[in-house]
From TrEMBL, chain A:
UniProt keywords, alphabetically: Membrane, Transmembrane, Transmembrane helix
Gene3D superfamilies for this protein: Anti-sigma factor, zinc-finger domain
Organism whose genome encodes this protein: Agaribacillus aureus
Name by which UniProt lists this protein: Anti-sigma factor
Spans through the membrane: 86-104
InterPro entries: Anti_sigma_zinc_sf
From TrEMBL, chain B:
UniProt xrefs under Pfam families: Sigma70_r2 (PF04542), Sigma70_r4_2 (PF08281)
Annotated family: Belongs to the sigma-70 factor family. ECF subfamily.
Organism, scientific name: Agaribacillus aureus
Residue ranges of domain RNA polymerase sigma-70 region in the record: 25-91
NCBIfam families xref list: sigma70-ECF
Protein name: RNA polymerase sigma factor
Domain of life: Bacteria
Length: 287, 204
C-alpha cells in the first residue's frame, strides 16, 4: 500500500471522516490502484448490505436499581438492613401494644395458670379454675322411697323371672343329653386326627420349604437379570456419552483451529503490510 | 434521543442521586444499548440481560464518571465489557437465532455456530431460505470479537472513530485498522460461502 495512503485513511474516507486534503489523496490513490478501488467498492457495497439489518424495536422493562449500594453517609445507615429489621420489629411491638390498649387486653400469669381478659378495668378474678375431673351431679333421693321403688320393681318382675329360670333348667338338661350322645363318635374322630396330623404337617412343611427354595432361586435369577440389564444400559449410555463428548470436543477444536487460522492470517497480512511499509520508508530515506 | 447538553445535565443529576434523571437516561439509551448487544449476540434474551446489567452497573458507578460529556461512550464501554465477559463464559457454544422470512421477527429456528464448520452446512441453500440480513448476521457472528465491536459501533451506532477509540481505550488508528480487517473478514466469509456480489448486492 502507498505509504502516503494507508488502510486507516481509506477507512476514514469510506466513513466520511477524512479531511478534504486526505480525501483528495485517497481518491487519487484509488484511481491509480484498481485493486484497492475494487476493495473499496466491495466495502461500500458491504456497508449498504449491513445497513439492511434492521434495528430491533424493544420495550424497556422495569430495571430494579439497587439504591442501597449507592447510598453513603447518614443515608446508608438508615438504609442498612439491620436497622430496617430492627425498625420492623419495633413497629410490630408498638402495633401489638396499641391493639392491646384498644381492646383492653389484660394478661396475668400466676398459680400455674394463665388468664386473659379483654375488658379494661375489670379485675381478673384471683380464683382460677384448676384442672379437675368432670363434675358429678349429685341426685339426692330419700332412702326409704328408694327401697320402696326397688321392692315394687322386684314384685313386678317376679313371675317373669320364675319362668325364665324354669326355661333355663330345661335347656340345661337337653344339652346334657345331647352331650352324652355325641361323646362316642367325637372320641373316635379325635383319635384319628391325632395320628394323621404330624404326618400331614411334616409333608406340608416340606412342601412349603421346597416352594420357598424355588421362589428364592427365581427371585435371585430375576434380580441377576435385572442387574445385568441395568449394567448393560449403563455401559451403552456411558459409551454414547463419551462418543458425543468426543464429537463435541472435535468440533470445538476444529472451530478454534479455524478461528486461529483466520486470525493468524489476518495478523500475517497486517504484519506483511507493516514490514512492506517499513521497507518502503527505509528505501525512501535511502534515496 | 437527548442532545449532548441535556445528557450532561441528566448525568450530573443522576450522579447526585436523582433517580428520575437516571430513568430518563435509561429511556433515552435503552434501545441503542439493546441493539448494540443484540447485534453482538443475535440473541434477544442475552441482549436484554446484557442491557439490564449495563444500566444497573451504570447506576452504581455514575458518580465515578468524571467527564459527563463522555456518558454515551462510557455506557458502550460497560456494554462491551459485559459482552466480552459473556463471551469468556460461554464462548462459541452459543446458538444464534436467525431472522425469519418476514424479517425483523425472531423465529424459533436456530443454527449452531459450530455447524458452519461442518460439511453438512450448505450456505447456498441457507441463503435461499433466509433473508439477506440473516446471512449477514451469521457472517458477522463469525468475525473476531474486537473487529465486530468496532464494526457495530461504527456501522449501527454511528459513533465517530474518536468515540470508539475512547470507549475501547485504543487509538483511533487501531479502531480504523480493526474496522478495515473486520470488513475484509466479512467479505472473505461471504466469498467462502459462495455468496457473490449479485446475490448479496454488495457490489451495487
Amino acid at each position: 500500500m502507498d505509504p502516503k495512503v494507508n488502510k486507516e485513511q481509506i477507512i476514514a474516507y469510506l466513513y466520511g471522516e477524512s479531511s478534504e486534503e486526505e480525501a483528495q489523496r485517497v481518491e487519487a490513490y484509488l484511481q491509480k490502484h484498481p485493486d484497492a478501488a475494487a476493495e473499496f467498492e466491495a466495502f461500500t457495497g458491504l456497508r449498504k448490505s449491513l445497513n439492511k439489518i434492521p434495528d430491533v424495536e424493544v420495550t424497556q422493562p422495569v430495571i430494579m436499581l439497587d439504591h442501597g449500594r449507592r447510598a453513603n453517609g447518614p443515608e446508608a445507615i438508615f438504609r442498612s438492613r439491620f436497622l430496617q429489621k430492627a425498625a420492623a420489629i419495633a413497629a410490630v411491638i408498638i402495633l401489638g401494644l396499641l391493639t392491646a390498649r384498644l381492646v383492653g387486653l389484660n394478661v396475668r400469669y400466676g398459680d400455674q395458670s394463665l388468664t386473659v381478659a379483654f375488658n379494661e378495668g375489670e379485675a381478673i378474678p384471683t380464683e382460677t379454675v384448676k384442672a379437675s375431673g368432670p363434675k358429678t351431679n349429685k341426685l339426692s333421693l330419700n332412702e326409704d322411697s328408694m327401697q320402696q321403688l326397688q321392692a315394687s320393681i322386684n314384685k313386678f318382675f317376679a313371675p317373669e323371672n320364675q319362668m325364665a329360670i324354669q326355661r333355663l333348667d330345661s335347656l340345661e338338661s337337653t344339652v346334657k343329653i345331647l352331650n352324652k350322645k355325641m361323646q362316642h363318635p367325637v372320641a373316635k374322630v379325635s383319635n384319628k386326627a391325632t395320628e394323621t396330623l404330624p404326618r400331614d404337617m411334616e409333608a406340608l412343611a416340606r412342601q412349603i420349604s421346597q416352594q420357598n427354595l424355588q421362589l428364592f432361586s427365581e427371585l435371585l435369577k430375576a434380580s441377576q437379570q435385572q442387574q445385568e440389564a441395568y449394567i448393560k444400559s449403563l455401559f451403552s449410555e456411558f459409551s454414547h456419552y463419551i462418543q458425543t463428548q468426543r464429537l463435541e470436543d472435535l468440533i470445538e477444536i476444529e472451530t478454534t483451529l479455524k478461528v486461529l487460522k483466520q486470525e493468524s492470517e489476518l495478523d500475517k497480512l497486517e504484519t506483511d503490510e507493516v514490514i512492506a511499509r517499513l521497507i518502503q520508508t527505509v528505501n525512501d530515506r535511502d534515496y | 434521543m437527548l442532545d449532548r447538553s441535556n445528557t450532561s445535565v441528566l448525568v450530573d443529576k443522576a450522579a447526585n442521586g436523582d433517580d428520575g434523571a437516571f430513568t430518563k437516561l435509561v429511556q433515552a439509551w435503552y434501545k441503542r444499548i439493546y441493539n448494540f448487544n443484540y447485534k453482538y449476540f443475535f440473541d434477544h434474551d442475552l441482549a436484554m440481560e446484557m442491557t439490564q446489567k449495563t444500566f444497573i452497573s451504570a447506576h452504581r458507578n455514575i458518580r465515578k464518571l468524571k467527564n459527563r460529556e463522555r456518558f454515551s461512550g462510557w455506557l458502550y464501554t460497560i456494554a462491551v465489557n459485559y459482552c466480552r465477559e459473556e463471551d469468556r463464559r460461554h464462548g462459541k457454544k452459543r446458538i444464534i437465532p436467525i431472522l425469519s422470512r418476514s424479517g425483523g421477527e425472531i423465529c424459533h429456528e436456530s443454527i449452531d455456530l459450530q455447524s458452519h464448520h461442518n460439511n453438512a452446512y450448505d450456505p447456498e441453500k441457507s441463503f435461499q431460505k433466509d433473508e439477506l440480513s440473516g446471512i449477514l448476521m451469521k457472517a458477522l457472528a463469525k468475525i473476531p470479537a474486537e473487529q465486530k465491536v468496532v464494526l457495530i459501533m461504527k456501522e449501527y451506532e454511528g459513533l465517530k472513530f474518536k468515540e470508539i477509540a475512547e470507549s475501547l481505550e485504543i487509538s483511533e488508528n487501531t479502531a480504523k485498522s480493526r474496522l478495515y480487517y473486520g470488513l475484509k473478514a466479512l467479505k472473505k466469509i461471504l466469498d467462502e460461502w459462495k455468496i457473490n456480489k449479485e446475490e448479496i448486492n454488495y457490489g451495487s
